[in-house]
Specification:
Layout lengths: L1 H10 L5 H51 L7 H6 L5 H10 L4
Subcellular location: Cell membrane; Cell surface
Protein name: Prepilin-type N-terminal cleavage/methylation domain-containing protein
Organism: Loigolactobacillus bifermentans DSM 20003
């Protein structure tokens, strides 16, 4: 009996084709669940970032108006007075955001 166990254990050193196929199928199913969620999260993050940027430009416009007798600024005025950087002004102009 011990001889049979030793022979069986010697031959069974790796995985069978069926075991490898099952593992591969499980991995593929998990990836199918994860990939669509990652795409949705990226889209949500882009939307949230855009809303936050728009809110920031409006807040800077409100700060400018408070300091300049309620005069609403242009993007160029916000840049000239240091409320926004040139990069932020270019981004706001391309997105069509006004303060």
């Amino acid at each position: 009996m011990q001889v049979i166990k030793r022979i069986y254990m010697k031959r069974r050193s790796g995985f069978t084709l069926v075991e490898m196929t099952i593992v591969l199928i499980i991995i593929v199913l998990l990836l199918l669940l994860v990939i669509p969620n990652a795409a949705n999260q990226r889209k949500h993050a882009e939307t949230t970032t855009g809303e936050a940027f728009k809110s920031m430009v409006h807040t800077q416009g409100d700060l400018y108006a408070n300091e300049h007798d309620d005069q609403r600024p242009t993007l160029q005025q916000l840049e000239a007075d240091g409320y926004l950087s040139a990069k932020q002004v270019a981004k706001a102009q391309s997105a069509g955001i006004e303060p």
